Amino acid sequence: MNHSRSAEIFAKACDLMPGGVNSPARAFGGVGGQPIVMDRGDGPFLFDVDGNRYVDYIGSWGPLILGHCHPQVVDAIQAALARGTTFGAPTEAENQLAELIIAAVPSVERVRLVSSGTEATMSAIRLARGFTNRKKFIKFSGNYHGHADALLVAAGSSAATLSVPNSLGVTPGAVEDTLVLEYNDVEAISAVFARHGGEIAAVIMEPIVGNMGLVIPTSPFLTAVRKLTSEFGAVLIYDEVMTGFRVAYGGAQTLQGVTPDLTTFGKVVGGGLPLGAYGGRAEIMDCLLPVGQVFQAGTLSGNPLATAAGIATLTVLRDSSPYGQLEHLSQQLADGFRHIAADLEIEHVVQRVGSMLTFFFHNGPVHCWSDAAKCDTGRYSKFFWGMLERGHYLPCSQFEAMFVSAKHTPDLVQQTLNAARQSLVGLT
Ligand code: KE4
Fold first, then answer.
1. ∠ CA 221-225-230 to the nearest 5 degrees?
2. pTM above the 0.90 mark?
3. What is the pLDDT of residue 350?
């Protein structure tokens, strides 16, 4: 593939922006080489500035469950645009999006719209601390909840990819109340609650992890987390920024039968525009100003264009329910990967929930970060580039999830599997 124009543009980007990117997740730090500069998306495809076409398995890191440029989403944004971009005042569209979220997720009685997943999780932690009047909270290694200081400890996603799980600039004071445990470790969380239960404001978790690659919680772990938080009066925060409206219309919590106290949203809920949300029990949410005493604000919170994209996306998901189709396509992809890797005797495990999946170069299941950290990231890099050069765009890190959209087709998945066989042959 020719990448000359991409290289030219990226070289200039590096003179203008740190590392030439506006998010390190895009920096290809985990796979080497230079990021590809993209020009446009259409359905399941991305097209780069050199005219190369890729089957897109990133979907902007999760938002584009309907694919690029879905007509109903584009029309909704254009209609909203004609009426203005932002008012800094209440709009009816915010009611409509809030109603859709509350109707979809039974644990959400009240919701607050913000502009990113980071804002949602940062605010949920502050709210839980305000509601309980406690300081400490638990997170899990390899879970990523955005880049708020207190959460940037043993983080996943690009923090893990670039081996900076504890970022410079985050002071010891900012993280002194952050307790980090191993995901799926029932004993560890039970012991911490036994010792500190009365001091713990919250547990925040990815209910299905996408940010160390796709890691699935065990039922005993889910049961223990819910039981312990209820017993000790800690707020259970389900970070569904990635899983919300992705693994099911009601998110991971509806698949798992767990009722969290707060849930954070992002990505799909904004339909590809900057929008996040957090919501949950009314008695907790009503601690937020102007009703309560917990402060959180945002100039563009509930922005008319972003809410229009979110309303259109959730409406299409609610009315067309593509989840069965996404299940079949994603199962075809996962089973195909497994068959090819087994055929070629390549150590691997493919883990999947719905249309989120990861091909791990790891012998045996990945249950937690200490498992994920043992993956052969060098082999992943070679696989990544073999796939990219054949026109299939996978996450540029072993510690991210692949996403399938409702615009992918069985034929495209088969093309991806053909490319995977060619790419994996070189790794035997
Ligand atoms: P944003 O601030 O990036 O909108 O959301 C932060 C966030 C919170 N919680 C979860 C579970 C998330 O996955 C994320 C963001 N995910 C990464 C990709 N794994 C975003 C990509 C990026 O950082 O560029």
1. 150
2. yes
3. 98
Token pair, residue 52, equals 């190369």
DSSP 66-89: T-BT-HHHHHHHHHHHTT-S--SS
CA nearest to 346, candidates 366, 358, 357, 360: 360
Residue 13: count of CB within 10 angstroms of its CB: 17
User: The domain 4-65+322-425: what is its CATH number?
Assistant: 3.90.1150.10
Instruction: Write down the pLDDT at residue 33.
Output: 97
Topology of the domain comprising 71-320: Aspartate Aminotransferase; domain 2 (3.40.640)
Q: How far apart are CA 84 and CA 92, in angstroms?
A: 14
CB 141 within 8 A of CB 181: yes
CATH 3.40.640.10 residue ranges in the chain? 71-320
Measured CA to CA, the distance from residue 227 to residue 249 in angstroms comes to 25
Given the residues 144, 249, 278, 323, select the one marked as catalytic: 144
> Considering 48, 56, 185, 239, which one is annotated as catalytic?
239
Please list, in sequence order, all residues whose beta carbon lies within 8 angstroms of the beta carbon of residue 95, skipping any fewer than 6 positions away: none
- Residue 240 CA to ligand 1 center (angstroms) comes to 10
> pLDDT of 262-280, one tens digit each?
999 999 999 999 999 999 9
**Going edge to edge, which strands form the sheet with 38-42?**
38-42, 45-48, 53-56, 392-393
